[in-house]
Amino acid sequence: MGRMTHLAPLLTLSGGTTIPAIGAGTWPLNDREVASMCLTAFEVGYRLIDTAENYGNETGVGKAVRDSGLSRDEVFVTTKINRRWHADAVAGVEGNLVRLGLDHVDLVLIHWPNPDQDLYVRAWEGLITARERGLVRAIGTSNFKPAHLERIVAATGVASEVNQIQCNPFTDRADERAYHAAHGIVTESWAPLAAGNGLVGNPVVHRVAAAHGVTPAQAVLAWHIHQGMLPIPKSSDRGRLTENFAALDVRLEDAELAALSALTNPDYELADSDRFGH
Q: I want to staple 41 with a disulfide (CB 3.0 to 4.6 A). Which of 46, 68, 113, 173 is the partner?
């Protein structure tokens, strides 16, 4: 492993597990590409890697973890089960572990609530069991609305530790984030840079970035980090990975956070979830 200047600070989940405050997304890289990207990310200082069964690259992520020279407890691996496993989430997690080649995963999420099949409560019960069996250290959800989150708590008494949602200044999800905060749920942001949809080219973003001598992407990621969100930007480029990670050191003013939040547009959302692996 290359020398690092520092690691990300840690957030503490409601169940007591700690998670790095920034992570590296992996979609749509294949196994070979993701193994190389993860090793580079580890050298930069990342310790959180986000994958999923749907991404088709868990094998490559697991290989990178084993080849990194880092001890297992130094790396935080997140993966997700898809709708196929809502009726038997324990089997789904066991499949994740086989593909990853790991004996446990740090965080497993239900990838989508898929209310059309109405099995996400059963899936949540399965994740609770998987956590009890030591297959996973923490459990959470992805793309759940407050109504979905309320239903799983009502049924099980156990709240999600993380809810991963599409979030960025174009779609800041303030009400949902407030709900998360009130219930001890960490908001994890996918598409934190709005996935090439013009956010980093926005004049307001450029103005904030210029005031701090940082890049527009760093300014946007700092917006997430300052508000307690956990962004998982995606890149396989060493320079971009390094740039994104350095957003941890950017300190924005309250007025700048507000200016970025004011960019939110109720009509904006990345609707093509397949394109983004979500």
A: 46
- Per-residue pLDDT tens digits for 79-89: 999 999 999 99
Q: Any idea what DSSP says for residue 247?
A: G
- What residues form DSSP beta bridges with 162? 186
Q: Cα 94 to the chain's mean position, in Å?
A: 21
Question: Over the range 160-178, which residues count as b (16 or more CB within 10 Å of their CB) and which as e?
Answer: bbbbbbbbbbbbbbeebbe
120 is catalytic: no
The 8-class DSSP code of residue 75 comes to -
The two counts, helices (H) then strands (E), for the chain are 10, 10
Choosing from 55, 120, 179, 268, which is the catalytic residue?
Answer: 55
CATH architecture of the domain 10-197+229-244 equals Alpha-Beta Barrel (3.20)
- Give 150-208 pLDDT, tens digit per residue: 999 999 999 999 999 999 999 999 999 999 999 999 999 999 999 888 999 999 999 99
H/E stretch holding 108: strand 105-110
CA nearest to 260, candidates 170, 167, 166, 192: 170
